[in-house]
Amino acid sequence: MSNQPxxxxxxxxxxxxxxxxxxxxxxxxEFSAVVxxxxxxxxxxxxxxxxxxxxxxxxxxxxxxxDRDAMRAALRRAFQTGEVxxxxxxxxxxxxxxxxxLVPIVEDVQVVAVFVGAADxxxxxxMEEGLRDSLRTGESQDRALLEATPDLIFRLDGEGRFxxxxxxxxxxxxxxxxxxxxxxxxxxxxxxxxxETMRHLGQALQTGDTQVFEYQMTVxxxxxxxxxxxxxxxxxxxxxxxxVVRDITERKRAEGRLRLLSSxxxxxxxxxxxxxxxxxxxxxxxxxxxxxxYAPEELVGKRLSVFHTPEQxxxxxxxxxxxxxxxxxxxDIWHVQRDGTxxxxxMHNSLLRDEGGTPIGLVGTLRDITERKRAEEALRESEExxxxxxxxxxxxxxxxxxxxxxxxxxxxxxxxGYESDKEIVGRPFTxxxxxxxxxxxxxxxxxxxxxxxxxxxxxxxxxxxxxxxxDAEISVSTMTYRGGWARLGIIxxxxERKRAExALRESEExxxRLSEATLDGVIIHDDGLVLDANARAxxxxxxxxxxxxxxxxxxxxxPEWHDLVRQRTLSGHGESYExxxxxxxxxxxxxxxxxxTTSYEGRQVRVGVxxxxxERKRAEEALxxxxxxxxxxxxxxxxxxxxxxxxxxDLTVLYLIADGMADKEIAFRLGISxxxxxxxxxxxxxxMGVPSRTQASxxxxxxxxxxxxx
Length: 710
Prior knowledge:
Layout: H1 6-26, E1 31-35, E2 41-44, H2 65-81, E3 85-90, E4 97-107, E5 110-120, H3 122-137, H4 143-148, E6 152-157, E7 162-166, H5 185-188, H6 191-207, E8 211-220, E9 226-235, E10 240-247, H7 249-267, E11 271-276, E12 281-284, H8 286-291, H9 296-299, H10 313-326, E13 328-336, E14 342-353, E15 359-368, H11 370-392, E16 396-401, E17 404-408, H12 410-415, H13 435-449, E18 457-463, E19 469-481, E20 484-493, H14 495-515, E21 521-526, E22 529-533, H15 535-540, H16 545-548, H17 562-571, E23 577-582, E24 588-600, E25 603-612, H18 614-636, H19 648-658, H20 663-670, H21 674-688, H22 693-702
Antiparallel strand pairs: 1-2, 1-5, 3-4, 4-5, 6-7, 6-10, 8-9, 9-10, 11-12, 11-15, 13-14, 14-15, 16-17, 16-20, 18-19, 19-20, 21-22, 21-25, 23-24, 24-25
Helix pairs in contact: 1-7, 18-19, 19-21, 19-22, 20-21
């Protein structure tokens, strides 16, 4: 049992408690009971001939006063030593003699209860007394008396040799007595029992007194089975022995099953309690005590009401009423621990009855379901989160378990033309698939269940409520759902995309002839979705043209420029402007883009032209660096140019004149207009008093106004 999952062990323990314990005890012919350390009877069998011995009473009350001390001592030794104890007592109700066996029930090397089995030996004692008298007087045995006993009786001689026997009530006993005749006890009995028999025989022969002793033995039968026996031997001084043997195999098995069951009860993670009808506890196992924060001995005698909150009183009363009316109850009940902590339990109560059918008590099993409640709450919260996320999705979402739809979001309801998810949930998912695709989807689902490699995303045709079909794309994944497995499908209506793809195919060749002639990238897009493009547009961004089509244009723009591009697109801006583009490998580069709105295939689309201006930007940066270098040199010569009253800009232009640059070149280098450059040249010639650019250059070089100042 220890290898089973805890849940399975708990269920098995519950079944044992409900059925096996009472059945084992009730099927035992002798009086059988389970008692605690104080001697209180926790449970007793119904078939006992002592109905006055009730659950909750003391075991000592069933015997006459002279035997109570012996009974207490045997019970005390059983709890202290963990060993089986024997004692003979007389019933105070019937006067019958009983041999009581006290079998400890042990858990973790600790005795938690004791099983008491009491066999009526009144007839046996009368028979033994008669046999002893017969041995003492030498009279022959009374055959009527011997044949009436259920036991097997042997007669042995002074050497321990089996002489003859009387069969149990004339029936064939389990122990084959004929095989013993002519053999000694040393040949057929275990060594220790044979030695004990011979010792008592020797004492009887020496003293002349009758020796009576009890024994137990396990005997292998010819068929290979083992059977257990107990008996008494009477050894008289006249060199004869009588051995009375009783087959106790079934009783031993019952005791073993009871010990196993009791051990399972104590080791179970479920709590067990036995109470009288008034609600007073008679027995609890360790699990029951521990889950309430007590030691087991603290709870015996307490009332069940201490484990329930006042708020739970109506539910508990209803449970008890149902138990009295139907014999059992199962349901969730909240319990309270010693420190006041409240926790949920699954409780099962059964009604105990005496042999007359009168209710005498309750036996209950208890399972702490705190973790289950937490799991249920977590599952509920998880499902709520899932629903919240699913309902905000623009894609259709459905959950399929065992081929049936368990959930459909609002987007899927609208997509398939229904009014409510109630029209979808509970139906086979194939109801929403075109007949042409049902076999494909069922086969892929079967292959996925078998662990085969199948696509997680693929296209199919879905079916609307009105019978029309539309192109859809589904993405499938597996998820846990209420303790099992389910398929999550995300469905997107791709009808528009399919139409766009068709339009692209139809216009592809025409567009290629026009767009491949330009070095700029050209893109045609509808609301951001690329309908067509030339090879240059894909190459600029590092893509193949086949993967470029159908993508979002913002994929090719650095994220920080998205807002500007959206604004210019929505406003219909037609002038060129600069942004930073994004390549497939994640690198960025400067672009000059412009867009126009135009008619394309009967609808308004946006045509965008993009140019990689990385080289231009690098040229501008180089020009800026040259300009800054030129101005630095001019600044160094500014003091020397003071006598001509040349300004910083005049000196900069003079440097370029000395380099042989024309006005247009000077204008480009300085980032000014050619007209402004010409005005600067005229001012310089006038200030220096020279008629030409050449003379101005020569004079500037001679006087050190220009030249390499570094």
